[in-house]
Amino acid sequence: MSSMIQGDVLIKGGLLVNGEGITRSDILISDGKVLELGPDLGRERANRVIDAGGKYVLPGGIDCHAHPIFGDKIDTYSLCAAYGGVTTVHAFIGSETHRHEHFQNTWGIREYNPDIVKGFIEFAEETSYTDFAIHGLITTRDKDDLDRVIPDLIKLGAISFKVFMTWNPFVTDTDAAYSNLMAIPDDLLMRLMHTSANEGGMVMIHAENGTCKAYLEDQFKGCGKTSPEYHLKSAPAILEAEAVNRAATMALVTGSPLYPVHLSSQEVVPVLNHYKQKGLKLWGETCPHYLTLTDDMMLKHGYKYKVAPPLRYDQDVDAMWKGVTDGSLSTIGSDFTGYTKNLKIEGSMTGKVIGDAKEPDPDNLNIFQVAAGLSTLEFMMPVVWTHGVNTGKITLPRFVQLFSENPAKLFGIWPKKGTIQPGSDADVVLWDPSLMQTVEKEHGISDLNTFEGMELLGMPTMTMVRGQVVIENGKVVGKQGRAKYAPGNPDRTSYAQHGPATDSV
């Protein structure tokens, strides 16, 4: 009887990779879902047969850390995602998003955090090339409404909430009030943890000690030390480790799961492991730039490589690789901003295009007035493949865990996303391990490609979202307006009492 079932697409002859291993399996897709897996499914069972011989077949990547508020909107950065094998982008949306001039004509100026999220969902479904999920962005602006903001966001499927433990890296001295709205004090963080935990949510933290960082910046600026080297010196690794330690203590007290993002230093790994041993539900994220780049890039190329936390040293890169290998770290996110040169030089959070930006004079550049953020999304997975899978640092199944399975489980969209199995969305990437590419310009608006000039071996040749081909052999064949929101389910997370299996995490 099953042999008579017809599908829309049959992917045939590829090596299917999941978190448990690699198998030779065909994939039958119908109505946007995976219908059947098998070693030799008949070609007559589908309207289209895709030959995957010589290629790996991976579940679509999930970028668990993207910012559609600084340069690229989701219409352009989702195209970057699809080119890079990412089929679901997890965007930070919240109480400050509506203040950005770039979006006044997209989802409008709205005051209440969940209303802002609703507006973004409407906009993204009309313009994105990929599916999407949402992290709530919580700032001091939400303090009076927090007890209703969190339940309302969770009802919308935004079940994870990011906060800043440091000052906003984009502000100047005259913008202190705005800075104070972005970073939240410890008492508000504990209140958020308590409220979120009671509702089934998880808190995400940008972990840097804001008081120490502000003190060091003021010291350097006061004596005219504003060249690029002082960005790293103003944000030493101990500030990251201290903030994670402090937040983890609060999480233990409040019973909240915790997810520190874009971790960068060898000092932070023992802190993670210490609190995991104490039973804290704790997961960590790093980024492709912390796995491949060091502070030498900023010393050589200047403002282009300013990011928060900063690029560090070889030993920190090694520690991040060890973390993703041994499970101390669970995910890799892009932390994508998509700045153009002019936006980055001007330190703009408004998204307003100011005109052509000239290369700054290195002798007069104030690195503390330059925006922090990198354009990393499109080449995130190929970079980690090249420097991780090809070098033997991580296995192919671990690659899938880090980019697909773990984010889906952590944020409550498993098994709809993050896997290729019957009933899951047919988010599929065909990956050619022999395909070489030298990184040039991305397909978004940024003219500051972080990995420009890097030689990569192993690239996606086809990206499929819910059975629809979006990218095929380097060309856009999909359409906007087919995107769907993937709401998180707090009962299906890795930290839920009866959530999905978490062995891969």
So what's the CATH class of the domain at 60-412? Alpha Beta
Could you tell me the radius of gyration in angstroms? 22 Å
Largest sheet: 7 strands, mixed
Strand order of the largest sheet: 3-2-7-16-17-18-19
Number of strands: 19
Characterize the overall form. globular
Strand content: 15-25%
Number of helices: 15
N- to C-terminal distance: 38 Å
**CATH overall fold name of the domain at 60-412:** TIM Barrel
CATH architecture of the domain at 60-412: Alpha-Beta Barrel
Measured as a percent range, the helix fraction is 25-40%
Q: Any idea what the CATH superfamily of the domain at 60-412 is called? A: Metal-dependent hydrolases
Helix and strand content put the structural class at alpha/beta
Uncertain stretches of 5 or more adjacent residues: 98-106, 169-179, 349-354
Kindly state the mean pLDDT as a whole number?
90
GO molecular function: hydrolase activity, acting on carbon-nitrogen (but not peptide) bonds, in cyclic amides
InterPro entries: Amidohydro-rel, Metal-dep_hydrolase_composite, Metal_Hydrolase, Metallo-dep_Hydrolases_sf
Protein name: Amidohydrolase-related domain-containing protein
Family: Belongs to the metallo-dependent hydrolases superfamily. Hydantoinase/dihydropyrimidinase family.
